[in-house]
Each structure stands twice: as structure tokens, then as C-alpha cells.
Design goal:
Number of helices: 7
Strand order of the largest sheet: 3-2-1-4-5
Largest sheet: 5 strands, mixed
Strand content: 15-25%
Radius of gyration: 19 Å
Number of domains: 2
Helix content: 25-40%
CATH architecture of the largest domain: 2-Layer Sandwich
CATH class of the largest domain: Alpha Beta
Shape: globular
Structural class: alpha/beta
CATH topology of the largest domain: Nucleotidyltransferase, domain 5
């Protein structure tokens, strides 16, 4: 079995695979202050709850956009699982030609998403990831990573609105029943949800024109379902795209 870890700024998504089969996955809060021992005990408890043991894991694959946590998780993997993790980054085989001015600048999560999406859906393709930032990644028909766009995420944009506007409350992000809100909460929900739908659709349309022809659009991330339900350009939501990409990259580097 292998453990895959997608370490984001807000959440960590972890999954256990046996071959190509995903056995279980979890989403936990990212905490930069936790030590390797604290994460080790956390995973020990998660594993035990589902009937697994840490030593059942034969390999660990990590993609991280939080540099301070890399050493923490490498130490955790070596101490509690007895393995040296494969960290997605320079030198790791992805099977994807990255057509970026400086390939090292591309976040590991974006490359992992691209690898999984092309493996599953082919190309040309656009991947929209609703994380702390909303990222848009374009892939050619041949599977080359062409680049993309980065926008502020829904969560941080909503939080900024609450913090900077004294009379606006924190709200639950749910689908509004109408765009003309009849109270402050409904008005904020309409502005945020439909505003981001418009942002996504416009960026995807512009990317599609640059790519030329028909383009398949895949969404992933915590709020993907909410936005995709109103979007005119998103074709499918794949919530576990990133951890699936980690499994694929492990296979390409292990020869399994």
C-alpha cells in the first residue's frame, strides 16, 4: 500500500492506495506548527480507526505548496512509516513536458493535477482547482503543460471582505436562490458565488480561444461542486484529482 499526501495551504488531503484502488482518504487542516511526532500520532490514529497500520505502508508520495512542512513530513514518514518519501519536484518523472518559462516555478499540486487529468481525460484540457488560490492550468492535445492563470481563492476573498468591511458578517457559502439578494447575507452569497462563476467562465473561455478547438474542463478542490453547478464551461468535477495524480507519479517513478 502507498500513502499519498497533498499538502495545501489550508488542507492536507491524504489517501491510501492498494495498486490503483483508493482504499480510504482524509482531509485535515494544515497546521504549520505541528511537529513530525504530532502528525505521526495523528496518522496513527486515523489509520487505527479504519483498521490499518502505519507499517503496512510501503511508500509515501508527497506534493506540497507549504515549504516549512516538507521536512516535517519527511521526518514523520521516516520515523513512523519507515520509508523515505518521494517528493514531487525537480528530478521526479512526471511524464509531462512543462512549457513554462521556469518549470521550477510551477506548484507541485498544479503539475500533479495536470498529470492525473491528462491520464484520465486526455487533451486539450483545462484544470480548475478551487484551493486557497483558484488556479487554471492548460494542457495541449499532446499532453504538454502550457501554463495557466492564478486568481485569489474563494475562501480568502470572502474572509478579506469580512475583515475589511466592518458591517459585513462571515457567511456560509451556499448556492443563492437568486442574484438580487433581499438581505445582506443573501447579497453577499450572490456576489461571491455568481461573481466567481463569472470569473471562472470568462478565464476558461479566453483559455479555450487560445488553445483552439474543443477543450475539456475539469474542476477539483473544496468548492468545485458549488461553482461547477452554476458554471457554463466546467464539464466535470473530480474531487480526488490530486491524490490520483500522486499515485500515477509514484508508478512512473517506481516502475510498478
Amino acid at each position: 500500500m502507498i500513502l499519498v499526501l497533498d499538502i495545501g495551504n489550508t488542507n492536507i488531503v491524504a489517501g491510501i492506495y492498494r495498486g490503483k484502488k483508493l482504499l480510504i482518504h482524509w482531509r485535515i487542516s494544515t497546521d504549520r506548527d505541528r511537529t513530525a511526532d504530532e502528525y505521526g500520532i495523528l496518522f496513527k490514529n486515523l489509520f487505527a480507526y479504519e483498521g490499518y497500520k502505519l507499517r503496512d505502508i510501503k511508500a509515501v508520495v508527497i506534493a506540497s505548496v507549504v515549504p516549512p512542512l516538507m521536512l516535517t513530513f519527511e521526518e514523520m514518514a521516516e520515523k513512523y512509516l519507515g520509508v523515505t518519501p518521494l517528493v514531487v519536484g525537480p528530478g521526479v518523472k512526471t511524464g509531462m513536458d512543462i512549457k513554462y518559462d521556469s518549470p521550477r516555478e510551477v506548484g507541485a499540486d498544479r503539475i500533479v493535477n495536470a498529470v492525473a487529468a491528462y491520464e484520465k481525460y486526455g487533451g486539450p484540457l483545462i484544470v480548475v482547482d478551487f484551493g486557497t488560490a483558484t488556479t487554471f492550468d492548460a494542457l495541449s492535445a499532446e499532453g504538454h503543460y502550457l501554463g495557466g492563470a492564478i486568481a485569489p481563492g474563494i475562501g480568502i476573498s470572502t474572509e478579506a471582505l469580512f475583515q475589511k468591511a466592518a458591517k459585513l458578517p462571515r457567511i456560509e457559502l451556499v448556492k443563492p436562490t437568486r442574484v438580487i439578494g433581499k438581505n445582506t447575507v443573501a447579497s453577499m452569497q450572490a456576489g461571491i458565488v455568481f461573481g466567481f462563476v463569472g470569473q471562472v467562465d470568462e478565464i476558461v473561455r479566453r483559455m479555450t480561444r487560445e488553445l483552439g478547438g474543443e477543450v475539456y474542463v475539469v474542476a477539483t478542490g473544496g468548492l468545485a461542486k458549488l461553482i461547477a453547478a452554476e458554471s457554463a464551461t466546467i464539464h466535470t468535477v473530480d474531487p480526488l484529482l490530486t491524490i490520483e495524480g500522486l499515485r500515477v507519479i509514484y508508478e512512473r517513478n517506481s516502475g510498478d
